Structures are given as C-alpha cells and as structure tokens.
Amino acid sequence: MTQTADITALLDAARDGDRGALDRVLATLYQELHTMARRQLAGQHGQTLDATALVHEAYLKLIGRREAKFDDRAHFFAYAASAMRSVVVDYARQRLAQKRGGDLHRVTDLPEDIEGGLRLDEDMLGLDTALTQLAAVDERLARVVELRYFAGLSELEIAALLERSERSVRRDWQKARLFLLASLKES
Predict the structure, then answer these.
(1) Number of other residues whose CB lies within 10 A of the CB of residue 136
(2) Which of 14, 32, 112, 121 is the most exposed place for a label (fewest CB within 10 A)?
C-alpha cells in the first residue's frame, strides 16, 4: 500500500472518530507540517513562536475540534493551514497587546510570495481580517490564500492538493490578492 493510500485510509478512520488514526496521520505528515511552519516563520529571529511550537499548537487545534473531519489529503492540509493561521494570528495579537497596547496600522502591500516568512505583526492581523472577508465572498479563493500564505505551498503544490490546474490556482491567487489588497487599503 502506498503512503497516499495509507493516509487516505487513516483519514477515513479519523473521519469516523478514530483519534488514534488522526494521531497516525499527524505523525506521518509531521515533517511536511514542520516544513510548512518553517517556511512561514522564516526570518522571525528572536520570537518565542518557532516551527515546532507552531506545528504543536496547530495539532492541538486540530484534535480539539470535534467537527474536524478530513475527506482527503487536500482537506487535511487546508484544515492544517487554517489551524496554523489561527495560531499565528493569535500569537501576533498577543505580541502586539504586550508590545504597545495592540495599536494597528494600515497595511498597504501584500507580497507575491512569503519567501522571507510571515511577519508576526499588525500586518498579520490586517491580513486575517481581510481574509475572513474574502472567505465570506469566495471560500475557494480564501483556501488558496491560506494554503499559499499559511501553509507556504507553491501554486503547483496547491494545484496538486486541490486537483486543479496550476493556471487555475494562479488565477485564483491573483483574484484573491486583488481582493485582499483592496480590503487592506479600505481598512
């Protein structure tokens, strides 16, 4: 049996409520999750949130939700990206509250990629708010942003996970980016 087939079988068992199966999925995919977290946090020196802590916090969010059901690998990674987003945003909020009372400033740029890692500051909070607005308008576009920004996946990797063409994912990314930039400038 291939690793993909093993993961699919474990995801099926996890969907049926088998917590041990979910633990085995996470153990199997831990390295991929850790790589995603490292990409996100690249350049964040001196922070208390590191890749290992991000993966562990995301894991706690994943197992803490009773409704967490994963249909397939793509759904699992989308859920993991969402959990990582939640952890990173919570961390940025806490950090800002401690640093200077949580003052926010206007975000005016959204980089094409996050090679240097996400900035855990008020920009993250503005992006989170704009992304929540985007999800209310178009869930698919919001998922592409989460997978790209919060999971650190490339367009090719996202296309494979979502079983769509890379060109389609690129178009979705551009639409989402325009929406987010407009939302960020309005706020």
Answers:
(1) 9
(2) 112
